[in-house]
Amino acid sequence: MLQKIQQEWFSNVRSDILSGIVVALALIPESIAFSIIAGVDPMVGLYASFCIAVIIAFVGGRQGMISAATGAMALLMVPLVKEHGLNYLLAATILTGVIQFIFGVCKVAKLMKFIPRPVMIGFVNALCMLVFIAQVPHFVGISTLTYIFVGLTLLIVYVVPRFFTAIPAPLIATVLLTAVAMNWNLDLKTVGDMGSITQTLPSFLIPNVPFNLETLAIIFPYSLALAIVGLLESLLTASIVDDMTDTSSNKNKEARGQGIANVITGFFGGMAGCAMIGQTVINVKSGGRGRLSTFVTGVFMLFLIIVLGDWVVQIPMPVLAGIMLVVCIGSFDWSSFTYLRKAPKPDALVMLTTVSMVVVTHDLSKGVIAGVLMSALFFVAKISKIKVTQTQDGTKQVFLVEGQLFFASTSSFINAFDLNSHGQEIIIDFSNAHVWDDSGVGAIDKVIIKYQENGNQVSLIGLNSSSQKLVDQLAVYDKNGKLAAHS
Fold it and tell me: For position 382, what pLDDT does the model report?
């Protein structure tokens, strides 16, 4: 137990602390922006980010992953806040956590295996595009000085690590360029322009809503949507970090941890959140690997708000935008352009659909769902090709069936038989086939009954055990009271 704590918390102390500081600096303006999107006070997003980061450090299933208030979740909250106000949002946040915890107990992570690789690639690339698009208003068309500061940020972040790695380059860029802007009183947009920061600690509160079924009916649809989107983004982010760090994570524990974090956050005045791939990539690329990096992110963020709030609001937005641009460039899978040329066309189309859907709707869940559904359709189309070969063995007609017999291949199966034969002995060989569902059994029934009506004798051979069991259970009886399908 002690060895596990040592490994998860204190095996990378220096890098975890420094990376956590970098993430905290970048997280403040995003939390404020997400609060504005949701239509609540900036402190709601800041409190959420602090609470979720600290709690998930202890109860999460993926070390080094950053969870906080996110844009994907904020978009879902807009109608609820607009129609019912903040207290209903806090109640929905608590219920979101409860639902996520239940999903975790039910081992929802098993569903991750149904997300194909093209969808994963599309998810990452689309998220990079969304993060990039979100930075554009902070530096495009504002002033020449803004462009200069973005350029200086990029220069520092890319060049400094070649000569000095003791302190993460994004932290150096933030501190140095903020000092320059403050000292020379430069006219730049700052964190303070995003919203005001109140230097107060979050306090425990119970949402001021009626505890009845009417309230539940209002918040449940939002909570369910928030729970699904939050877990989808969190589990996908965990998988990406697994690949980046060549380590594994407990995704069911992560689901439970996200639930616990959101429940507690709701009681401390914060909105629902989940894992953030952008901030997580900053953390990992800055050297963060352990739970300490996530914990430091939350604690240092609160320190910045409470103690250094007057300085934090003066951080130039072009600097933070520049850091996020670096994250976008570094996280984007540039090899996907080669992938589009080399991959099978269905896989390439799935990736493009995922990216397009996310970018157009700004909703990660819709893009992933669209990609998974399209992959499923392509898969069904691919395996629905069934082959039936006819041979004559004396007085017998033998039909060798090859492939998968299910709802999508029944038409091809039926059309392969000449059902107008009379007085023949018909043998249908399923040695190289598998029957999957009731539609498949129905197709077999249709063929056999039609042959029998024309005076043919029909038998099935070669059914494997599971196919035989399905046929025995579902096949219909003919007019003589015998099973239409028999071995």
Answer: 87
